[in-house]
Amino acid sequence: MKVKTILLGAAVASGLFAASVSAQTIGFSQVGSEGDWRPAFSADMQSTAEEMGIELKFANAQGRQEDQLRAVRAFIAQQVDAIIIAPVVVTGWDQVLQEAKDAGIPVFLADRDVEVDDPSLFVTRISADFNLEGRLAAAWLAAESRGGCNIVELQGTVGSAPAIERNSGFMAVIDQFPAMEIVATQSGEFTTEGGKRVMEAFIKSTDNLDGICAVFAHNDNMQLGAIQAMKEAGLNPGQDVLMISVDYVPAIITAIEAGEANASVELRSAIGQFIYPVVLEYLANPTELEKWIVIPSDLHTAH
Ligand code: GYE
What we know:
Blueprint: E1 4-6, H1 9-20, E2 25-30, H2 37-51, E3 55-60, H3 65-77, E4 82-85, H4 94-102, E5 107-110, E6 125-127, H5 130-144, E7 148-155, H6 161-174, E8 179-187, H7 192-205, E9 214-217, H8 220-232, E10 242-247, H9 250-257, E11 263-266, H10 272-284, E12 292-294, E13 298-301
Parallel strand pairs: 1-12, 2-3, 2-4, 4-5, 5-6, 6-12, 7-8, 7-9, 9-10, 10-11
Antiparallel strand pairs: 11-13
Helix pairs in contact: 1-10, 5-6, 7-8
The structure holds beta-D-fucofuranose.
């Protein structure tokens, strides 16, 4: 069980002061540019680094772990002061993190997570609690469906922390309701096109769409793709089928306002203000930190 601490405003304020008195070079290995949330996160990390006088070396891996590993090794060769990684999947990081440790460069995880044998290979992880997001989504759906619902699940990238944890949290709640069940689940890779493709295939494959009570999508973009597919098949998402997803990007707010989606759990994208102070504070004064600093997630509905 990872010990975690919920981010407090005061911690950010003190970090911002520390940030204002130092010019550091930080390498940031970003997952890619899938969907709407990821680009918003990237833009925030780049603008916040500029505001704080940080020289940011930004590397977009376009969803390929081998490109992330190559970027981290380049940061090590360039002897950056610190490395931030948003790891596309949880496995395959032990070797490169050991190389960073051997080079004396601290590594921080942002957004996603890794599974490593030696937790000292990274200083801390600053992110939302994906398991909680899954629980929030399931609790809302249990209330809305009065504990009886056949659910289609659109999973995120296979092997990624959000896909693993959002499913785990969601299942922990619906397992308490015998009449709630995931009847179909597949990855749509966190993209609108992926969500539409999976939903189109599901619609073609089933002869009982009336039995579907809800769609739980691990992110809003897959939900938006599912909405397109459902409307093209003559279904009424948000009306006849409950639609719950995660991220709360502007496009899902529009869909909720149009009555085509019902709820979304917010994943904050403006999180550079939380990440950089932790990194800079550590560089100024290297002390043991909790292995997980959690950024809260909030549930938003139409009413
Ligand atoms: O939900 C999704 C993005 O890593 C939690 O990645 C993040 C997820 C987010 O593709 O939109």
